[in-house]
Design brief:
The complex is a heterodimer. Chain A is mostly helical. Chain A is built from 11 helices and no strands. Chain A is elongated, with a radius of gyration of 22 Å. The model of chain A has no long low-confidence stretch (mean pLDDT 78). By secondary structure, chain B is mainly alpha-helical. Chain B has 14 helices and no strands. Classes of the chains: A mainly alpha, B mainly alpha.
């Protein structure tokens, strides 16, 4: 717990070490909170229709305009963001859980088992994953939980590889060997040395997984396999916007901007973190 | 080298079979069958159809028959498009996707590598502008880029058709849309690793001895290309077998769009056909990528057990 707190603080100090990345982080934090508490910030309920006004341009009552059914675009962006963020974080959590466990077990197993487990990951890389996710969505229907699990089950591979590499590296370091020689047991070494040293890597890898998960979710929504109407997600909002972009460009511009900006910020923060020296985080 | 390649190809065969077996059984769990229509067919017709296509046999029997037909290259008839075989349809669609994907791959490679190289060798403004551009490219999903390109180039400027696949120029907008994301990734990967190589001692020594910047960069790029090559394998397979999103934005009759519709229609044989094409591509490209990596880097060759 203490180690993760320390790691978190160290991550923050890296993020705020340059202005651009800091701004990205603040943007993300504000947007995330606004989406999470969408009920308070959104001026209208997300499915409230107003057919009388139809798709109207941005004005004082509807700052980002309304969509074809007269629903407030700003409201829908907030609610859509909630879905997109939820999928992003939950699916990443699934991926982290599977990937980190798999990677650690593989690294700590005997050589034979380790190489067999890694061969399996190599094979899994060759599977047509996009197709599998699409098939899963079609087979089991479009439930939000399934989106989490299906995407998470696809994204864990890279995480497993990185965590395995790091664990092997830490395991062979002298302080671990010394601790072992002093009689520290397996779980003690895990708790004292391996886990605390892994946290930084895992956090960084997770930050970079979130945007790719969100992108995958939006592709599914775009293809009509994501969340179900009237619940919006950024993918569906952009899709609707693209359909009416000639008559109501604001329906495309605002959701697309928020979606792309979020991805940009997440990638930016992740890149900054991974460029920094990770070992530092735990100490 | 030849032994290594042969070993990889032999290893790829079981992977391919695992994939098609998994998909074969997966699609059978989908509720609904290929003959569900808006208007319910009479039970007799349905039974006759199922019997005709052999869908009333047990699953293992169907699977064995599928393998037997596959062994002489017969993928069976399509359930949705009557009187057409899957291989014929897949070939027709794949031709379109290959053309589009090939163009996109070329654009992505040229633009990505050029951007990455300039960004790695340059300093200051230009370099960070290119970095930001490639990061932005990663964050702009195809379904944002596509509509915007249509808006600018077909609706405002009128240079290209907004949609469809009839004229030669119809390839321009979709291939750019498809290529952008990959170009951005390639640029980012290449820039990162090239910059790392250029900072190493051997590059510095070469510069100190008076080699031109170009030659130093060329030498460094030998090892800097590795991450790009391993990224290219799945990327190229993805581009060449058709992007679901780009094809549906531009309404192109390619493999990607076709796969989605066949999956939604439970057109079993067609799903298998599409999956097999994709799996074959990705497996081949992975092997090619590993060979290329071994050629680029002797240390990797040793790790892979390649003997010259």
């Amino acid at each position: 717990m203490k180690a993760s707190l320390r790691a978190f603080r160290a991550l923050l100090s890296v993020v705020f070490s340059d202005r651009h990345t800091g701004a990205c982080f603040i943007f993300l934090a504000i947007l995330c909170l606004a989406c999470m508490f969408a009920e308070f910030f959104a001026p209208y309920p997300f499915a409230e229709q107003n057919l009388a006004i139809g798709a109207s341009a941005p004005c004082a009552e509807h700052i980002f305009g309304t969509d074809i059914l007269g629903r407030d675009v700003f409201t829908r962006i907030l609610y859509g963001g909630r879905i997109s963020f939820a999928v992003g974080f939950a699916a990443t959590a699934v991926a982290v859980l599977i990937g980190a466990c798999y990677g650690m077990v593989s690294a700590l197993s005997p050589r034979r088992v380790d190489s067999a487990m890694m061969r399996l990951v190599d094979i899994a890389y060759a599977l047509p994953f996009t197709i599998l996710v699409i098939l899963l969505m079609i087979i089991f229907g479009r439930s939000l939980w399934l989106i989490f699990v299906a995407i998470g089950a696809v994204e864990w591979l890279t995480m497993a590889r990185i965590v395995r590499g790091m664990t092997l590296d830490i395991k062979s370091r002298q302080f671990v060997l010394a601790s072992e020689a002093l009689g520290q047991g397996f779980w003690g070494i895990m708790r004292l040395h391996i886990l605390p040293n892994l946290i930084g890597t895992i956090l960084v890898c997770a930050t970079l997984t979130v945007p790719s998960v969100m992108l995958l979710e939006s592709f599914l929504s775009f293809l009509g396999l994501g969340v179900q109407a009237p619940l919006p997600s950024w993918g569906t909002l952009v899709k609707e916007g693209a359909e009416y972009m000639l008559d109501a460009p604001w329906m495309l511009v605002f959701p697309a901007f928020f979606f792309s900006a979020t991805l940009y910020c997440l990638n930016r923060v992740g890149a900054k973190l991974s460029a920094a020296d990770l070992r530092r985080f735990s100490k | 080298m030849i032994r290594y390649v042969l070993r990889r190809i032999i290893c790829a065969v079981p992977v391919f079979f695992i994939i098609i077996t998994a998909v074969f059984f997966m699609v059978r769990f989908v509720p609904g069958g290929p003959f569900d229509r808006e208007r319910q067919l009479s039970p007799e017709t349905l039974a006759a159809l199922n019997a005709y296509y052999g869908l009333d046999d047990s699953l293992p029997v169907q699977y064995l028959r599928f393998l037997k037909n596959l062994s002489h290259g017969d993928l069976g008839p399509s359930y949705k498009y009557q009187n057409r075989s899957v291989s014929e349809l897949v070939r027709e669609k794949a031709k379109v996707s290959l053309k589009l994907g090939g163009a996109a791959l070329a654009i992505a490679l040229v633009a990505g590598l050029a951007c990455g190289a300039v960004s790695a060798m340059g300093r200051g403004r230009l370099s960070s502008a290119l970095d930001a551009a490639s990061l932005a490219g990663i964050c702009l999903p195809a379904f944002v880029v596509g509509p915007v390109l249509i808006w600018i180039f077909s609706l405002k400027l009128g240079w290209f058709n907004a949609m469809g696949w009839r004229e030669t120029s119809d390839i321009v907008l979709p291939s750019i849309t498809l290529a952008l994301f990959y170009a951005a990734w390639i640029s980012k990967l290449f820039k990162d690793s090239e910059a790392r190589e250029l900072a190493k001692d051997y590059s510095r020594t070469a510069r100190a001895k008076g080699e031109s910047a170009m030659r130093v960069a060329a030498e460094a790029s030998k090892s800097a290309l590795s991450p790009v090559v391993s990224y290219l394998a799945p990327a190229a397979a993805g581009m060449l077998t058709g992007s679901f999103v780009v094809e549906s934005i531009f309404n192109i009759p390619g493999l990607g769009k076709f796969f989605i519709s066949s999956a939604l229609d439970s057109d079993y044989t067609m799903i298998m056909g599409c999956v097999m094409v994709y799996a074959a591509f990705i497996i081949c490209f992975n092997i090619l990528a590993d060979i290329a990596l071994a050629l680029l880097n002797p240390r990797v060759a040793k790790e892979l057990g390649v003997r010259k």
